[in-house]
Amino acid sequence: MVRTAAVMLALSMVWAEDASAQRRRAVPARKPAPPAALTTRPANVKCPESLGTGVRTGASYCFVLAGREPAAGVLVTIPPHTGPATLRFDLHNRHTYSEEDVRAARGFAKYTAVVAVLSMTGELLGRGAVQTEFRAAQDLHERVSGGAGPGGVKAVAPLGREQVSVSIPAGTDAVSLLGEVLDATTSAGRETATPGRTVAIVSNVQVEYRPAPAPRKR
After folding, report:
1. Does 176 reside within a domain?
2. pLDDT category, 56, cuts 50, 70, 90?
3. Which terminus of the chain has a smaller tally of CB atoms within 10 A, N or C?
4. 198 inside domain
């Protein structure tokens, strides 16, 4: 009986030490880090031809030209992001204001413009369209500073405002805006899109995204 008790005591001590060792070796599972919060910020835009700054809003206006080569468009940098990002911008028609035409009842104009959002390899990611009519000065979205007109404004002005939203895939770090369609009726006649011609105007370009995690230090 004494020998049996001694054996049982020894075994219990071994089991206790083994259980203690297993507890020490067990590493609690790490919880995955929560996804980064959505961030919205003004985009970094490379504008091939700028119209200027709005006198009312202070917005920067950029011409969107007709073409097929992404490198020739309005280039927008997409910050490093997790999952899809969202590109948002305001789209306007381009109108040349003439007080003389308005007074002579020749001021009516009608515009339809379509722009494409392309990856830098030419993949179509989305489109935006704006359709407006002009009859009087109050139809303009706003005037742009830096011209010779009354109050120092330019004759060319943004007309109408369409808010466009396009999903940008993960891994895409830049996109291009190019004009596809222009159908305009003005006092000068009919206008359509030809390579290099202004199709529309964009402003207030923003990107909504989840920032990608910082690279791990080695």
Report:
1. yes
2. very high
3. C
4. yes
